[in-house]
Amino acid sequence: MLIVVGLILFVLLVQPAPSVIRAAVMGSIGALAVFAYRGGPHRRCCACAL
What we know:
Elements: H1 2-14, H2 18-36, H3 41-49
């Protein structure tokens, strides 16, 4: 939850340009991969790539 708030604050602080929104989306996908798929490094890479 704290990561989501941090990403929203980052987007608001830097101005919601397309590249900033893209970075926030990729950051949230990476965070989701780390926290949801703790089975092993290959599973995290596959989830992050999706």
